[in-house]
Amino acid sequence: MKRVRTEQFQYTVAQYLKRRQYVESEGPPKGPKLSQTAEEMATNLTVQTESGCTNFVSAAPCQADSQQYEIQFGQLRTFLTDTNVQWSREVTSVLYPLFVYLHLDMVHCGLKSSVDSFYSRFHSMFLQDTDQKDIIEQLRTTLTVQDISSNPKLRAFLDNKYVVHLTDEAYNYLLRYLQSDNNTALCRVLASHIQVEVTSTQRTVYQLYGSGPSGVGGFSRGDASNNMEPGDVPASILQNEAARNSLQECIKRVKDGPPSLTTVCFYAFHNTDQLLNSAEISANSKLLAAGFDNSCVKLWSLRARKLKAEPHQVDVSRINLACDVLDDETDDEDSAGTEMKTLRGHCGPVYSTTFLTDSSGLLSCSEDTTIRYWNLGSFTNTALYQGHAYPVWDIDVSPCSLYFASGSHDRTARLWTFSRTYPLRLYAGHLADVDCVKFHPNSNYIATGSTDKTVRLWSTQQGNSVRLFTGHRGPVLSLAFSPNGKYLASAGEDQRLKLWDLASGALFKDLRGHTNNITSLSFSPDSSLIASASMDNSVRVWDIRNTYCNAPADGSSSELVGVYTGQISNVLSVQFMACNLLLTTGTTQENQEH
After folding, report:
1. Per DSSP, what are the bridge partners of residue 199?
2. What is the largest CA-CA distance in the chain?
3. pLDDT tens digit string along 364-376?
4. How far is 301 from 299, CA to CA, in rounded Å?
5. Rounded to whole angstroms, how far apart are CA atoms 439 and 448?
6. Which residues have a Cβ under 8 Å from the Cβ of 263 and sit 6 or more positions away?
7. Dist CA 103 CA 143 (whole Å)
8. Element at 39 (helix H, strand E)
9. 412: confidence class by pLDDT, cuts 50, 70, 90
């Protein structure tokens, strides 16, 4: 209805202008549009967001005035040669590729008179360098598009980007000049044909990089058969192509070869007296959180830096409450920082904890039916989420920390956002407790495992069940999505690790080897390995590609590549980090103070 009214308004205005004898009044008014489609609005917002100094070079319009080529290049040369700024000499390396590409651009546009004037005025600048002199002399006879097509070296310039290395200061110096005046011809060449690589140390070496399908460092093999001799291509291009091919071959051998041994780092809890329920390590490997039966959450620093609360932004009242600890030593301890912080707020055992993606906050769930958010800057509880009617067993945060999900004894899973203390979605369908929840890497789906021996996949927004996975013979205690989003792993009390193909909904692999409940799962960053922790006091690593694995003698699946055991009585969690590092937490059999 709104669009119809807009069209009627535009038609009325057009008729009025026509009666007043204005020319070209049949078209719609040229003023601002009164309505926009979703695509137009998204485009406008993108332009407003991404336009700025950093994109100034790539946003330059085409040059229509033939004289501007010579004027802008001459002004840049004068600016660089007549000033004593320390970065002028470094930026001068841009003049040679600018001259070549501006000359070729004028040839393509058919500006013969401008080409002659441009060449005769500036070509003497580059005759001192032997390599540059060869190209400059070839430009003397290049006056038509056919001349460019028949010259392999000039064609290589157009088929590839010319790379110039500049330091941060030199690049900013050049950028400020380009923004100071009308330099659209220079900006267009820089955006289309020149790759400026900003480095921390000063480098003036330049070379040509391939910009086509051949990738970085040279021409595709199809170019070699197109009447281009190896001698016509600069040596740096051939060296880069050889290095690129060697690198691609190494990457292929690593991907297709046998998995490398995983490094395991074990964090042990001593003398916990079976009070420890869960443990979680932050994504940056700096913090360790654990939930205990005595309703507290403990936080440890895994680095040399101690945990120190940020100062309060507001000076609160001096009135002392009954819960305040009036001890000067406590204040001194807070100011200096401690290696461990105790977070109190729950009134029941804490069953699960999880960090936000950026490790700025922590979520915990408890038998008291609540979920609490802890600010790790001040180490205080800043939000309380209520909605479940029974104990909450597990929580998980979405990849971008926009949402979090919870599973409970009330047979439901719920979707939450940090800005609302009530659930946004309720996922009902399981016939027993929802023991574990996990977000898909794209956040569009949530997986739940239940005591009813099934795994369900839910649409995050719609709230309906889109997959039902059956086959477990006991409660499902742990879930994990592969980072590439193709597979879902589930495990539990039946001692089997099952991999499900999400696209088809079918069972992909059934891995056996554990002799007790499997409590934790984690995929490697490249989705080729999966680690499982069990109450049989072992951690097993499996290669789901199963290309180089042999069947173990103990009857485990052939995908098994490693078993890790030690002086442990219970493994709580496994988490794959970068560089093939596997972090494991658990309790030890030793009776020592921690």
Report:
1. 167
2. 99
3. 999 999 999 999 9
4. 7
5. 9
6. 579, 580, 581, 582
7. 9
8. helix 38-50
9. very high
Q: Hey, what are 386's tokens?
A: 């209520």
Distance, in Å, from the CA atom of 450 to the CA atom of 427, rounded to the nearest integer, reads 12
Beta bridge partners of 417: 403
Place of tokens 């499900």: 500
In this prediction, residue 183 carries a pLDDT of: 81
> What SS3 string covers 85-149?
CCCHHHHHHHHHHHHHHHHHHHHHCCCHHHHHHHHHHHHHHHCCCHHHHHHHHHHHCCCCHHHHH
pLDDT band, residue 382 (cuts 50/70/90): very high
E strand residue ranges, 188-332: 194-199, 206-210, 263-269, 276-281, 287-292, 296-301
CB 585 within 8 A of CB 573: yes
Query: Per-residue DSSP letters for 479-538?
Result: EEE-TTSSEEEEEETT-EEEEEETTTTEEEEEEE--SS-EEEEEE-TTSSEEEEEETTTE
Segment 468-499, tens digit of pLDDT: 999 999 999 999 999 999 999 999 999 999 99
Whether the CB-CB separation of 178 and 57 falls below 8 Å is answered with yes
3-state secondary structure of 449: strand
Residue 200 has pLDDT above 80, yes or no: no
Strand order in the sheet with 445-450: 434-439, 445-450, 454-459, 465-470
Q: Which pair of tokens denotes residue 510?
A: 């059934």
Q: What is the length of the chain?
A: 594
The rounded distance, in Å, linking the Cα atoms of 441 and 92 is 47
CA dist., res. 414 & res. 406, Å (int): 5
Measure the CA–CA gap between 123 and 73, rounded to whole angstroms: 12
Q: How far is CA 474 from CA 128, 166, 451, 572, in A?
A: 81, 62, 7, 19
> How far, CA to CA in Å, does 439 sit from each of 267, 320, 366, 495?
26, 43, 20, 23
Distance in angstroms (rounded) separating the CA atoms of residues 266 and 260: 19
Q: What is the pLDDT of residue 594?
A: 39
Q: What pLDDT is attached to residue 156?
A: 83
Phi first, then psi: what are they for 125, rounded to 5°? Answer: -65, -25
Instruction: Judge whether 492 and 514 are in contact, CB under 8 Å.
Output: no
Q: Cβ distance 425 to 411 under 8 Å?
A: no
Distance, in Å, from the CA atom of 355 to the CA atom of 361, rounded to the nearest integer, reads: 6
Confidence at residue 75, expressed as pLDDT on a 0 to 100 scale: 85
